[in-house]
Amino acid sequence: MYGAKNSVLKLMAATLLAPGRHRLANVPGITDVGIVCDLLAAMGVEASHSGSGTAGSLDISVPCEVTPVAPYELVEKIRASIVVLGPLLARYGFARISLPGGDDFGQRPIDMHLRAFEDLGARFTTEHGYVEGRCDRLVGTRIVLEFPSHTATDNIMMAATLAKGTTVIENAAREPEVIDLAAMLTSMGARIEGAGTSRIEIEGVDTLGPSEHRAIPDRVEAATWLAAVGLAGGEVELLGARAEHMEMLLEKLALIGVHAVDTGAGILATSAGRLRSVDISTLPYPGVATDYKPFLVVMLSVASGVAIVSENIFAGRFRYVDELRRMGADITTKGHHAVVRGVRRLSGAQVRSTDIRAGAALVLAGMVADGTTEVSGAEHVDRGYENLAGRLAALGADVRRESE
Ligand code: EPU
Description:
The chain has 404 residues and is α/β, with parallel strands linked by helices. The protein has helices at 5-14, 31-42, 72-75, 85-92, 111-119, 150-160, 176-187, 219-232, 247-256, 293-301, 320-326, 356-368, 378-384, 388-394, and strands spanning 20-25, 46-50, 57-62, 69-70, 94-98, 123-127, 130-134, 142-144, 166-170, 191-193, 199-203, 212-214, 234-239, 259-262, 266-271, 280-281, 306-310, 330-334, 337-341, 350-352, 374-376. It has two domains: 5-205, Alpha-beta prism (UDP-n-acetylglucosamine1-carboxyvinyl-transferase, Chain); 219-394, Alpha-beta prism (UDP-n-acetylglucosamine1-carboxyvinyl-transferase, Chain), CATH 3.65.10. It contains 14 helices and 21 strands. The strands form six sheets. Strands 2-3-1-12 form a four-stranded mixed β-sheet. A four-stranded mixed β-sheet has the order 4-5-7-6. A four-stranded mixed β-sheet has the order 8-9-11-10, covered by helices on one side. The longest helix is centred in the middle third of the chain and has 14 residues, at 219-232.
């Protein structure tokens, strides 16, 4: 499995905490990594990607002084840019970040990030679409998150590594990527306890040093392959995939009809016969991730029976359903719920990808639909997958990437 996008983007931001040469391994060749390289370059940081797949790596050289500004042109392309705010405030006492707008999932506020940094001693002003933060050295405190936001937890954890005294994050996100970031920060000299639990304690240190770190495998990419096995049938071993990072998903998949075994080297997935419907609710980790949902909905579209799918993280994350309907899926949505009535066959159509996971899900749907499916907006898929079409084709699917 290639490195986890949602880990790598944060690991890249973490390099801002220490001058010197950092090296990140297992970095996939995806557009989002390229955009964060551009963001770092705009600040005066050299970042270059080489190799591909699990051999992909990033060399990042952070100078002693950077330009602590994240411009609109880049933040607009990737909302995760907000994750540079914590490191910049902690190390330079100043950051100017373009405010991220909404996106295809609906509203994407950053209020939890800002409130937490205020608790740590930062002050913010907002003007001309930019939020500007200032502080003397941040001071550790107890922060209670009203929701276990993944990126807010990452951002606060990074900032707290250089704060004076101890910071406690209560109701912290527990994603494996948070543990991965804590592991990298620890290798840089940070003192962190409890990453992966709801209570993370960070004892601030005066300085951090550069790191060499290998990103964990991408569990969302693993989920994509597992769904492909469920839809097409057959057997595939996902080398490097970590079953312990997706226990709830594997339980749901077993009910749907995909059998997954932890082989030690990865996950061996098998599936035969028609899939079965099962209700699904997305929840923060360790619940079923919202990122898995589009793949699960495609599987349920062709399963036997009726399923209710509830989205509890991003209210607007059902846009791709209109595209699936165009392919013959029988899905009704109301608010953050969808009723999926399984049909026997989908029918190939021209459809549009609206985000990374929705795009990948439409490709999977096209794989089992009658006739040809053309997914436009493939650049969304490239944001999170290196060579999705080529790798599906290597497994026997008739999928190819048309040039733009
Ligand atoms: N939220 C707020 N205020 C905040 C922050 C979040 O109200 O200040 C809300 C969000 O609007 C949402 C909920 O809290 O309703 C959870 O959002 P969270 O902050 O956990 O999401 P995120 O960190 O912005 C990451 C992933 C997403 C993934 C979500 C949920 C990254 C870069 N992105 O987003 O991944 O869907 O967690 O697990 O880590 C993707 O990979 O395609 C993707 C969208």
